[in-house]
Design goal:
Elements lengths: L13 E6 L5 E6 L10 E6 L5 E5 L2 E5 L4 E4 L14 E6 L5 E5 L2 E6 L4 E4 L1 E3 L7 E2 L4 E6 L5 E7 L2 E4 L6 E4 L12 E8 L5 E5 L3 E6 L4 E6 L7 E6 L5 E5 L2 E6 L4 E6 L22
Parallel strand pairs: 11-16
Antiparallel strand pairs: 1-2, 3-4, 4-5, 5-6, 7-8, 8-9, 9-10, 11-12, 13-14, 14-15, 14-17, 15-16, 17-18, 18-19, 19-20, 21-22, 22-23, 23-24
Amino acid sequence: MFRNTILSAVCLSLLVVSLQAQDAYKVKYVGSNQGLSNNSVKCIFQDSKGFVWFGTYDGLDRYDGYEFKILRNRINDSTSLPHNYISALNEDNEHNLWIGMGQGAVTYNAFTNVVSPVYYYPHQSSQKHKVGIYINSIEKDAEGNIFLGTSGLSVLVRFKDKKEAVQIPLYNADGSAKKYAFVQAMYVDPQKRNWIFIAGEGLYRFNYKTRKLDLVNADIRNFSVNKMGADNAGNLWLGTSTGLLKYVVAANQVATHYNSAQGLLSANYVTTLSMDGNDQ
C-alpha cells in the first residue's frame, strides 16, 4: 500500500527528502528561516528542468536545492500573481507552469518571467471569462490536455490545440447542466484514465469521445477526498478526511478502508499520496 504522508493544514516545517544509494532517506529541513515564503505548504511540484516549486499560503517558491525564488502578488501590478494562496501546480507541454490559486488560475513562463491569466468558455457560451474561482487540482494527460478541478464550476479543460479552456459540466436527470459541482480531486492513471471525484456526487471518469464526465460510482459520494493515486495493479487509492481507501476499479467498489483506529495510520486526515518504485 501507499507510504503516505499525513500533513496538517498548517505545516510547521517542510522536509526535503532525497533517496540515497543504501535505500535510506536523508532529510533536510527547509523552512522560512531558510528562505521559504511561508511554512504552510499546500502543494509541491517538480518541473521538467528539475526545479521544485512549493505552493504556500503566501506565495509561490521555486527551489533549486540551494535557494528560493519567490513569486507573490504586487499591488497594482497586473504582471504579478493575482493571489498569494497557491493551491495546485502543473506544467504543460510548452513548459509553462500552471498555477491554481485561491482566486483563479494563471500560467507562468519562467523564461520570459511573464504571468498570464487563464480564460475559459462556460458551457454553451461563446464569450470567454477569466478563471477566478478556487482551483483544487490541476492535471495533465498524456496528450498534453490540461484539466482544472474547480470549487464550483466542475472541470475546466484546456485542450492541447486550444488557447482557452472549456467548462465540462455535470448534468441533471432531465439533461440540464448543473449550476454547481465541486471537484475535490483528480488523477490521470498509468492507463491514461482521468478520474475525477466530485463532492456529494461521487467518482467520475472523463470520456474523451463525448467530452463529458461519466459517473463511475455514486456510493462513495459522501467521502471527502483530498488526493487520488493508483498502484501498479490499477487500483485507485483515495486519501480522505476519514482515512485511506483502496478502490478496486475492476470490482467498482472500495475494498479496504484504512484508518487510525486500526493502528495503520497515525491520523485519519490524509492530504497526499505517493507511490515508490516497489509499489508501496
